[in-house]
Amino acid sequence: MAGNGKLRSDVKPGLQVDIVLKQDQRTGKLTRGIVKELLTNSPQHPHGIKVRLQDGQVGRVQNIVTE
To answer: For residue 66, what pLDDT band results from cuts at 50, 70 and 90?
Structure first.
């Protein structure tokens, strides 16, 4: 179930994902972590679903890691 992080139904707590932090949006630098909670309420978002990782960082999902 590989998703691109734009559909809320694809993103679940416990999944490993790559996110873009707010301060990294210009560079596109990705940060990898485990989803703690979903912050976007709408069913989809063109820039990725906003999540909080277990370490507390917040960003938009770019990839769902499937290895």
So the answer is: confident
